[in-house]
TrEMBL record:
It comes from the Eukaryota. This is 2995_t:CDS:1. It comes from Diversispora eburnea. Pfam families: adh_short (PF00106). The keyword Transport does not apply. Keywords: Membrane, NADP, Oxidoreductase, Transmembrane, Transmembrane helix. InterPro entries: NAD(P)-bd_dom_sf, Sc_DH/Rdtase_CS, SDR_fam. One of its GO terms (cellular component) is membrane. The chain crosses the membrane at residues 6-36. Putative oxidoreductase. GO terms for molecular function: oxidoreductase activity. Belongs to the short-chain dehydrogenases/reductases (SDR) family.
Length: 321
């Protein structure tokens, strides 16, 4: 009821931005578009079945902490063999140990690998080929963030974020595709972010990398449709992880994680989405609403981003006084 009211009020407000003709047209055909969407969603989900985690081989990037670690735990619990990769070797060993404790009848392969380093990624695929010679799913989760205004940001950070989040993930995909194509109904999960839909201030380089991922994988999905490879794009909001500690930049402002979901809960939702073969995963009704309004009435949401930016700039000014 609350959301219905919000939708209604936003449409009325939005009508004054877009002009009444667009508004009336959209409102009239909205139910038809909605039903068509339901039809195509069903079609996709039907062709994505049957598929289960049991005895599959899954590569998870960035599995040393946070969401990736929780995903590794859940994959093995569901009977999948996993290859886990990240740069911090010791933390990765701990995760591998935890996975073996959760399920001792699956294989857990840990590979120390910086996905932004092409030769390390190549080496990892050599190891995957000799150990399994098979991949049913890749989870592109490794990522870094930032938290400062662009004018204060060292430009190398913008490049570094792109190297890891975008070039790293797409390079892994390039090398994984021949293996993924050997099995029917293989999966690719991309851990994007709600910031890949609505960019908020202090995240220029991060938002760019997440938008790039979306463009890349939407295009790739149309190429891979004939091979029945299902790409799921997930847009989590705040998740309680180590992302704050791992932020790049000289003085990154911390994310407020007070109303964040746990990484376990996040991983559970992602695992269900992979299993079904969802096109995309939005975590809350608020996020779904944002997705809808952003597409139809872009000015509306942009205004909130400006307001938020203004608040941050004021905060920075106070801090410097
Ligand atoms: N936390 C949130 O609120 C949130 C919200 C939306 C989306 N996300 C996305 O979720 C993903 C996971 O983040 P998280 O929140 O779980 O943060 P996290 O705890 O910092 O985990 C990030 C993981 O990525 C790995 N990683 C970073 N750079 C890497 C590289 N060059 N090569 C290989 N692995 C690398 C890290 O391991 P090493 O440092 O050991 O390499 C770590 O395991 C990211 O893509 C992030 O953008 C997070
Ligand atoms: C462990 O993995 C096997 C498949 O190798 C699976 O059958 C089983 O359900 C998994 N789960 C647990 C908790 O053992
Ligand atoms: C990705 O692969 C290309 C070609 O193999 C390489 O030139 C580039 O450096 C790689 N980038 C990253 C970040 O791994
Ligand atoms: C990439 O990894 C290799 C092997 O670990 C290392 O020798 C090389 O210095 C790395 N390259 C970069 C640019 O970090």
């Amino acid at each position: 009821m609350v959301y219905f009211t919000i939708i209604f009020v936003s449409f009325v407000i939005a009508a004054s931005f877009t002009g009444p003709l667009v508004f009336v047209f959209f409102t009239l055909i909205y139910p038809v578009l909605y039903l068509a969407n339901v039809y195509f969603r069903r079609k996709r989900l039907n062709s994505a079945q049957p598929w289960s985690f049991n005895e599959k081989v899954i590569l998870i990037t960035g599995a040393s902490s946070g969401i990736g670690k929780s995903l590794a735990h859940l994959c093995v619990k569901n009977g999948a063999n996993v290859i886990i990769c990240a740069r911090r070797d010791e933390m990765l060993s701990n995760v591998a140990e935890e996975c073996r404790k959760i399920n001792d009848s699956v294989k857990v392969l840990k590979v120390k690998c910086d996905i932004a380093n092409e030769s390390e990624v190549s080496q990892m695929f050599e190891i995957i080929k000799t150990t399994f010679d098979r991949l049913d799913c890749i989870i592109l989760n490794a990522g870094v963030s930032m938290g400062e205004q662009f004018e204060d940001t060292d430009y190398s950070i913008i490049k570094k974020i792109m190297d890891i989040n975008y070039f790293g993930s797409t390079n892994v995909t390039h090398k994984a595709l021949p293996l993924l194509k050997n099995n029917k109904k293989s999966r690719i999960l991309v851990v994007n972010s709600i910031i890949g839909i609505i960019p908020i201030p202090l995240r220029t380089g991060y938002a760019a990398s997440k938008f790039a991922l979306r463009g890349f994988f939407e295009s790739l999905q149309s190429e891979l449709w004939k091979d029945e490879i299902f790409i799921t794009m997930a847009y989590p909001g705040s998740v309680r992880t180590e992302i704050n500690q791992n932020r790049l930049g000289s003085n990154p402002r911390e994310l407020d994680l007070s109303d964040a979901v746990s990484s376990e809960e996040c991983a559970r939702i992602l695992i269900e989405g992979i299993s079904r073969g969802d096109k995309e995963i939005l975590f809350t009704n608020r996020d779904k609403l944002i997705r809808l309004i952003e597409g139809v009435y872009p000015e509306l949401l942009a205004y909130f981003a400006y307001a938020k930016a203004k608040k941050h700039v004021d905060l920075d000014r106070n801090k410097n006084q």
